[in-house]
Every structure is written in C-alpha cells, then in structure tokens.
Design goal:
nine-stranded mixed β-sheet, 15 strands, alpha/beta, TIM Barrel, 358 residues
Length: 358
C-alpha cells in the first residue's frame, strides 16, 4: 500500500464526439442529462468526502471530457475535496476547449495539473482515430494553461494507427517535446470490443509497427530529459503522475460518478456504468455501487507484482526464477539492487515476463 497517499477520482461521462477506439464510460448523445448528472454527482461526491479517511494527496477529474463543463462549475467539485497542502490536482482537457479563462477558474479551485488529449500532430492520423481537434490547437492550449499558472502539463499521445508512417510519429513526438511538457503518456492503440475500430479489422494495429514506434518515443523522451517510470509514461524528475502511481502501487482511493472505482481498507467497488442509472440510483437515495470484491492475499500479492513490473520500481528478485532470468527472460529484465526491472526490449514483451511472476 502507498503510505499515507490517498486519491479521489471524479468522472465526467460526456463527450462531443466519441473516438473510434474509445471503450471508456463516455457518451456523446446524452448531453440532455448533464444538469441531472451534475446534481447527482454533487451528492455522490459529498458521500465520498464524508468517507475519506484522510485528505487527498491527488485528485483526478477524468472522462469523457471534463473541460466541456463551465470552469467554475467543475472547479466547485474540485474545491469541495479536502486536500493535503501539496496535493496534485489534475483535470483532463481537450485542446479545443482551452482558454485562459477556463484555466483561471481551475487554478482558483486548486487545479495544478492538466492532461491534454493530443494523440497526434498529424491531421491524417487524428482523422483515422476519430479525433475532431486540429493539431494547431495544441500549442495555444498549452500556452493558455501556462498563462493561468499551470506549469505541470501532460500530453497524451497514441501510436500505431494504420497508415501512420514512422516519420509522422517521429514528428508528433518531436512536436510534443517542443512544447516542453513535464509529462508525456504515449499509448499503443488497442482494439477494444464494442468500438467502431473493433468492427474494422483492416484498421487494426500491427505489433511490429507499434514496437518500432515505442522505441522512437522512448529514445526521444530520454534524450529530452524525461525519465521512463511506467511502460507508457515519461516525466521530468519530480513530475511523475502521483495519482496514477497510487493505482500502480495498490493505494487507496475513492471514486465519484458513474463507472468510478474505489479501493479502501482492502475492499474494492465500482459504480453503475451509465449516467441514467447513476442519476436514478442517487436521486432514489441509494449508493450507486454496482459490484465489489476483496482479493485473497495471494491474489493481491500477484496483482501487486504485475503492476510493479510495469514500472521503474520493478519486482523483488525473488519474484522471478533465476533459471528463467538467465534463460527465456535474458535481456528482458535487468537487476537493480534487490529488484528486477524491465529493459526496453522487456517492456515490449511485458506480458511474457508477467506470466512468469511467482
């Protein structure tokens, strides 16, 4: 468990347009529910605040597209969460929503980190992913955040779209670094059931292509001074995402809103998925919990190893067989003190290593 760290997640499930690859609990056809959803969210978040065992060291507002909401409205939700003095408070933002006025409202509420959904700087790739913003919207968005005083900026990127030349991906990475972000998340495009992408096999990514592009982004990040700390994440020293680190270290957190997950005192639970059910449940005076679980000790330990393996923390040397480290895993992990950490080739084959954890 992650010491005294504690997180709060707030979910905003509305988008203007649903991207072709997205399997998150988001909707682009239910904006008429926004007012009722926010009313229910206020009630749910108040319950979350009442259940908090200690102030939050991180707050994350995700979605969906939280930046679609009025800045003062979203800021009121953030400001209602009791936070530790140095808490990390993040809001996900689409570049086309950015303005100094929006970020001023965020800063007044305590927001000190924004995560921009950039995905690519190539117009053709953005179109193939179903993204609606133009690549030229990103630099002004970053500038607006900084003008408001938010200097901790993450850029989310996606690689592996069919038809994306390696040169285009290299330009995307270089353009992102030109904006001097404190943090970059670069994710391989994945095919999720139920998405438009899943129904079109000719658009599915190629493993070898994605491996080549991972090497491109890793080399560029390291050269620019951003350190790798999780398979898909790089940061300048001291700017690692503390909220995500909480998840990766099996820390404690509470979630508000539809589909939000919580973990407290060894119990996990998750809320109903759709905004309609969330509204109906909360307005009916009931908790919006859809299910829960308590992992057995052995299962919890294995999960902890699987999560740690993805990070630069790595796993204890006892978690892997010496024979396999010197054999089938040769070159995929390296020893750092009393732990094994994935090498760059190992990150490309992380699942192969994970199945050998003991």
């Amino acid at each position: 468990m992650s010491g005294a760290a504690f997180g709060v997640y707030v979910h905003v499930p509305f988008c203007r347009h649903r991207c072709d690859y997205c399997a998150f609990a988001t909707w682009d056809d239910r904006h008429h529910l926004t007012e009722a959803y926010l009313d229910a969210l206020r009630v749910d978040l108040a319950d979350v605040v009442a259940a908090m065992p200690r102030p939050a060291t991180s707050v994350f507002v995700g979605g969906g597209t939280p930046s679609m909401l009025d800045g003062a409205v979203l800021g009121a939700f953030v400001a209602s969460v009791p936070c530790a003095p140095d808490a990390e408070v993040t809001v996900e933002v689409n570049p086309e929503d950015a303005s100094v006025e929006l970020f001023d409202a965020y800063v007044e509420a305590g927001v000190n980190r924004v995560s921009f959904g950039v995905q690519s700087f190539a117009a053709g790739v953005l179109a193939s992913l179903g993204r609606r913003h133009g690549a030229d919207a990103v630099a002004p968005a970053v500038a607006a955040a900084r003008a408001a005083g938010i200097t901790n900026v993450n850029l989310d990127l996606i690689y592996g779209a069919v038809g994306e030349p390696v040169d285009d991906w290299q330009r995307t990475v270089d353009t992102a670094l030109d904006l001097s972000p404190t943090h970059v998340s670069a994710y391989a495009l994945t095919v999720e059931a139920g998405t438009p992408l899943a129904t079109e096999p000719h658009r599915h990514p190629d493993d070898d292509d994605q491996a080549a592009k991972y090497l491109v982004v890793h080399d560029a990040m390291v050269a620019a001074g951003l350190q790798w700390y999780e398979i898909s994440n790089w940061a300048r020293p001291g700017f690692e995402c503390r909220h995500n680190q909480l998840y990766w270290s099996q820390g404690e957190y509470l979630g508000a809103g539809c589909s939000a997950h919580s973990h407290l005192a060894g119990r996990r639970w998750w809320n109903v998925r759709t905004p309609e059910r969330f509204i109906d449940t909360v307005t009916g005076g009931r908790r919006p919990v859809a299910g829960e679980e308590c992992l057995a000790a052995d299962d919890q330990r294995l999960e902890g190893l699987q999560l740690a393996l993805r990070t630069s923390v790595g796993v204890p040397v006892s978690a892997l067989s010496p024979a396999e480290v010197g054999g089938v895993l040769d070159g995929l992990v390296e020893r750092r003190g009393d732990r094994f950490v994935l090498t760059v080739p190992g990150r490309l084959l992380a699942n192969e290593v994970a199945v050998r954890l003991r």
